[in-house]
């Protein structure tokens, strides 16, 4: 899995990344001042840190198999339609592979869902927040976000601008949103 640093906003102690949590931040360790950001997390948000040499795919699969998750925050380096976590670029082309096949829901008809999908994050309303520069920018950003929303059933938020401290030209507003185009209740029944 590469070098994985697991911290908790409650205790900052090492714990198993398999723990079920309601709110999770997966952060790229190479983001400037990431330790300052993590220290400021609200209680109840766990953080999984990805080092440069791997771990993104395994952590994304674990996060998407957590059926109790209500918010997934992804902090990394971005560009329109993608985010980089560690050494992995997450975009529309490799979404299914990186998340363990969750994107197959986009090709399914309502009412045709596997028992695995009923027990994952697809079975309830939740949010994904991309804390990365320009991920939601332009048509490429909007297409990526809509794909993620349709694949996961999550409301997806991202920025069309720089993310970070205002002194560096950034901000902390996620100004672009995509909602899933299908009803979760229709899929569950």
Described by strand count, sense and barrel closure, the largest sheet is: 7 strands, mixed
State which percent range the strand residues make up. 15-25%
Task: Report, as a whole number of angstroms, the end-to-end distance.
Answer: 37 Å
Low-confidence stretches: 1-18, 105-121, 185-189
**Helix fraction?**
10-25%
Can you count the beta strands?
A: 10
- Which secondary-structure class do the elements indicate? alpha/beta
Q: Give the overall shape, derived from the CA principal axes.
A: globular
Summarize the helix and strand pattern as letters.
EEHEHEEEEHHEHEEH
| Radius of gyration from CA coordinates | 16 Å
What is the topology, as strand order, of the major beta sheet?
1-3-2-4-8-9-10
Count the helices. How many?
6
Q: Average pLDDT across residues?
A: 77
Structure report:
By secondary structure, this protein is an alpha/beta fold. It contains six helices and ten strands. A seven-stranded mixed sheet has the order 1-3-2-4-8-9-10. A three-stranded antiparallel sheet has the order 5-6-7, with no helix packed on it. It is globular and about 40 Å long.
Concise synopsis of the structure shown:
The chain has 6 helices and 10 strands; from the N terminus they run ββαβαββββααβαββα. The chain is an alpha/beta fold and 189 residues long.
């Amino acid at each position: 899995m590469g070098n994985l640093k697991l911290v908790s906003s409650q205790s900052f102690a090492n714990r198993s990344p398999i723990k079920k949590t309601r709110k999770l931040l997966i952060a790229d360790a190479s983001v400037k001042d990431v330790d300052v950001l993590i220290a400021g997390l609200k209680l109840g948000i766990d953080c999984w840190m990805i080092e440069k040499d791997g771990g993104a795919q395994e952590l994304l699969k674990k996060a998407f198999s957590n059926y109790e998750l209500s918010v997934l925050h992804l902090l990394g380096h971005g560009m329109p339609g993608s985010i980089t976590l560690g050494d992995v670029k997450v975009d529309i082309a490799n979404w299914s592979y990186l998340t363990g096949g969750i994107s197959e829901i986009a090709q399914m008809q309502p009412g045709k869902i596997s028992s695995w999908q009923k027990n994952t994050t697809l079975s309830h309303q939740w949010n994904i927040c991309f804390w990365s520069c320009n991920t939601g920018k332009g048509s490429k950003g909007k297409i990526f976000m809509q794909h993620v929303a349709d694949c996961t059933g999550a409301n997806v938020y991202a920025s069309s601008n720089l993310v970070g401290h205002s002194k560096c030209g950034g901000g902390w507003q996620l100004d672009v949103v995509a909602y899933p185009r299908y009803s979760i209740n229709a899929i569950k029944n």
